UniProtKB/TrEMBL annotation:
Catalytic activity field: biotin + L-lysyl-[protein] + ATP = N(6)-biotinyl-L-lysyl-[protein] + AMP + diphosphate + H(+)
Example GO molecular function: DNA binding
Recorded name of the encoding gene: birA
Family under the similarity heading: Belongs to the biotin--protein ligase family.
Enzyme class: ligase
Annotated DNA-binding residue span(s): 31-50
Pfam family, one: BPL_LplA_LipB
InterPro entries per record: aa-tRNA-synth_II/BPL/LPL, Bifunct_BirA, Biotin_CoA_COase_ligase, BPL_C, BPL_LPL_catalytic, HTH_11, Transcriptional_repressor_C, WH-like_DNA-bd_sf
Gene Ontology BP, a term: regulation of DNA-templated transcription
Keywords carried by this UniProt record: ATP-binding, Biotin, DNA-binding, Ligase, Nucleotide-binding, Repressor, Transcription, Transcription regulation
GO cellular component, one term: cytoplasm
Identification of the protein by name: Bifunctional ligase/repressor BirA
Amino acid sequence: MTKLQDVIVKTALEQLRPVLELLADGEIHSGESLGVALGVSRAAVWKQLQKLEQYGLTLESMKGRGYRLLGGLDLLSAEAIRSQLDDSAQGLLKELLVFDEVGSTNSLLLEQMEEGRGHAVAVLAERQSAGRGRRGRNWISPYGSSISLSVGWEFSGGVQGLEGLSLAVGVAVAGALQRFSVPGVRLKWPNDIWCQGRKLAGVLLELKGDLTDRCSVVIGIGLNSGLCAKTAGEIDQPWADLQEVSPGVTRNELAAAILSELLALLASYSQRGFEFYRDAWLALDQFSGQPVRLQSGSLSWTGTAAGVDESGALVLNMEDGQKSFHGGEISLRGAV
């Protein structure tokens, strides 16, 4: 069977990867030394460097000395990630791909799942030009400043057996963060990972196939790590960045930890279900016991958050009794 890496068309950004790898250390490099390392003229180097700013990368030119990328880059490496996976995850992961740019890692894998190429495949991208979050929102993911990860997995038994999966994925991401003692990690129903009261990461699940028998799921995870102030201005809610709350955690080691937790979950979810992860989710519930407001289109409900039930539905204590709400197009906010 053809591997996914052999059917993806490379983008123009990937042509800049060699010069980015040289500049990733954040040190000053002369045009001459860059040209020698790349095997091109200084004029060709300059043409490449001029293209970097359109991807949100800040290049500093120092007269008579050379160029440097302010702050450097923490570049993703498939080899580095694989080397840090848990032993069980090594055996579960069929293919791991890192791209410099894709439209959406989820969309890419969904297309390949339809052609039988996506099961047990993980895709990461340095940049998404059309990243998607829950409820159709854009997910901001500039070059080298986030974890943009999607994993494809096939399940039998239909959609009912996948109840609560998005919440369980949140538990897996929280577990990965806890490996590095990231402080203040909490979960917000149904798809968000918070840190110190702000959103750090989000989960997006998308399904294809026979919803009553065999179906394919793509699990997308977006996590902020190293966002610049300019990019952060585009985010429309309070946000957290991993490098601010836990500096020094590299994207490669974090991606390996997330994959290790996630692959173990996916391999056993059909047998365990959400019930296995419910207590862990409840222990991290951001809004437990707090007044909240739910919004779905023109409808809204207020009450006190009372955790989630065995299926992952949000339980709300309201004036007229206790009610359960399932995910979808429902937004949860703290009541003002």
